[in-house]
Amino acid sequence: MKLALAKQYFRGLINQNHLSHAYLLTGEGHQTKAKLTQAIIQDLACPNKDESGQACLSCSICQKVKRGQFVDHYVVKPDGRSIKVEQIRQLKHWLTTSPMEANFKIASIEQADLLSTSAANALLLFLEEPGENVYLFLLANQSDELLPTIRSRTQELRVDPISMEEIVQQMVSQGLSKEHAVLMTCFSAANRHLLLADYQEETFSRYIQALDQFLAYLLAGKPRAFVWVQQGLKEFLNFKFAVCGVDYLMAVAGALLLDAYLDKTDYLKGHFQSRWEEFKQIDEKKVFDFEQSLLKCKEFLMANVTPQLAYEQLALDNQIKKS
């Protein structure tokens, strides 16, 4: 089911007071399911809904939901490679407390297919005896990884992923230029959200320009890449911009390796224009090695290595050694 249709479906259930206590939202891509859950919470909580029951999206409650600050919404995410039983116990305790901003409580379990067996069994007890005005949404790519007893106690709805064109159009409607909106799709959904939170057109332009020049130095194996970390990227040497920068560079490297399969009007080709032809002349093994160095850089960042040191090591890893 398309996202827009799914929103209408749940809005109708809310209007008729027929919303069930537990749903299983399946389908590829986390962003679509998360957006649907957000819309459901807004339609439930908004005090200024229109005649169709749609939330106004502009009141303080709607904005809190959008920012993830709505206190009557509890989110469970995997702790490492699984969702542990203690996390479900904490969730169950939270569900027994009274709501603070609304007349209901709602919880989301992301990547619910990673529930450990003990966590799934603990959750099953809640599904068998749900509280009043309590709603639970399980988000998973596929339902077959969940216990049959959990699937049988939830209503499953498969949600189609949002296309790149729809994502771009959403960002354009939020005030981004078309060029910046398509470049934003280079970033993962989570990192894109971080960049959009405090997006400023001039800052984002400088950021992309600095990354583009860094990329050119890296792919050419020039020592100048090391110096550029301090000179050209100095403004962006914090964790958020550094991690997002690796996303961007990975997207370009992946596009180079898949160049033969890309459409002539692909947005990255259009962005780099004549420079893309220069990039294409680079040996495929060099591009593959570049990808591996980016993965190493990301590991450094996740291990709390400072962005400057991680990027400087990236520059050294790609520098052509003189014989």
UniProtKB/TrEMBL annotation:
GO biological process, one term: DNA-templated DNA replication
Pfam family, one: DNA_pol3_delta2
InterPro entries attached to this UniProt entry: DNA_Rep/Repair_Clamp_Loader, P-loop_NTPase
SUPFAM superfamilies attached to this UniProt entry: P-loop containing nucleoside triphosphate hydrolases (SSF52540)
PANTHER family attached to this UniProt entry: DNA POLYMERASE III SUBUNIT DELTA, REPLICATION FACTOR C / DNA POLYMERASE III GAMMA-TAU SUBUNIT
Entry protein name: DNA polymerase III, delta' subunit
Protein's organism: Facklamia hominis CCUG 36813
